[in-house]
Amino acid sequence: MGCSVCLWLLISLGRVWGTGRGARETVLGTLGKATILRIPPELQNLTLRFGAAVWKRDTEDPQRKLVLLKYADGNYTNYMENRMRFHKSDFSLEILNTSRQDQQFYEYIVSKGPEEKVWQIQLEVYEPVSDPSIHVLSWVLTNGSCTVTLNCTATRGDNVLYSWDSWDTSTSGLCSGSGSLLHFSYPLQNTSVSCTCTASNSISSRVVIFNSSECSYEQGGSAGLREKSVVVVVALVVVAVVVIAALMFIRVKTTCLAMPTACQKRDHSPLAENNEVHTIYSQVQRVEKQKVALTAEDPSCTTIYAAATGLPPDTAPAPNRAPRPPRSPPTEPPAPRGHPSLPQSPDEEPTTVYASVMMPTA
Questions:
Q1: Where are the alpha helices (DSSP H) in the chain?
Q2: Which strands sit side by side in the sheet containing 115-126, from one edge to the other?
Q3: What distance in Å separates the CA atoms of residue 357 and residue 334, rounded to the nearest whole number?
Q4: How far is CA 168 from CA 174, 187, 195, 207, 211, in A?
């Protein structure tokens, strides 16, 4: 009712101001929603009587105005059809999707013969307030009472104001306050404490309730407490990983000390196997050279050279025994005169056989 009185007071002042000047009012628009700019009944009657009016809007240039709509004898021209709608029933102008750019100064001018009647409107655009949330900043238990600090915040909204109050009469006055922060104390005998936070601006209002049954960090979900819990969990996981790695290392070391052959088999490389094979071949060659040397020293022995095919006796695989790697054939000495070599099979590798025969003495 107070606003209505103010409105009619402004209209009266407009009458006193006279030609070229008019009353002003402030209209609050909601961002993203429709906003209607209306004129008082007096100007509606003047428009019907004289039949000529225009809607204008200020621009960033103070010396230039933007004409939005012209009305004349029942017909009108809308210069902003994609953004505004004109209602002939009351000559109001509707902004379809209110934006920040629409926050301007508007004028409705009625031509009254040689003079004009002006109605001025200041449009203010606000974003509605979102649902607020309450966060517990601290709990302190001292002298049989619990002291709590709460913070109420809304993520969206223009010119948001915060106020606190008690939810029920049992704690009346306990949660009273203004601003986003609330600092209050209550005795532990209270079974529960309920406080409300109201976040509001000129076009909207939202309320959230805080309930506390005991003085505990578990109430309200303190942000600081959650951060400490995360740090503790991460530290425990790191310690567990380090302990498991140390136990596995000790187990491997113990196994190697108890069974060194097992560790040696793990470290056995193909290069080591090749080295063992080469060592065996070199031993075979040395044995063959010794045999040749012995036969040369004994003048009563005659060496017979013969070529045979197939595997040597020491390389033939025995039953239930893994085959040995092939030995490299020893260097074949040149055949002596008078002892031609035996024919060899092209598919089999020749093997030289050494034999010693004792000649009878006279």
A1: 2-17, 41-50, 223-258, 260-266, 270-297
A2: 22-30, 115-126, 105-112, 52-58, 65-72, 75-78
A3: 19
A4: 10, 16, 8, 14, 11
Judge whether 207 and 227 are in contact, CB under 8 Å: no
For 268, the token pair is 């056995």
pTM: 0.52
| Distant-in-sequence, close-in-space partners of 176: CB < 8 Å, separation ≥ 6 | 164, 165, 166
CA 113 and chain centroid, separation: 68
Q: How far apart are CA 109 and CA 21, in angstroms?
A: 10
Per-residue confidence band for 127, with pLDDT thresholds at 50, 70 and 90: very high
Q: Is 297 exposed, middle or buried (0-12, 13-18, 19+ CB in 10 A)?
A: exposed
pLDDT at 307 > cutoff 90 = no
CA 115 to chain CA centroid, Å, is 65
Whether residue 137 contacts residue 152, with contact meaning beta carbons closer than 8 Å, is answered with no
Q: What share of the chain is helix, strand, coil (3-state, %, to 5)?
A: 30, 35, 35
Whether the pLDDT of residue 322 is over 70: the answer is no
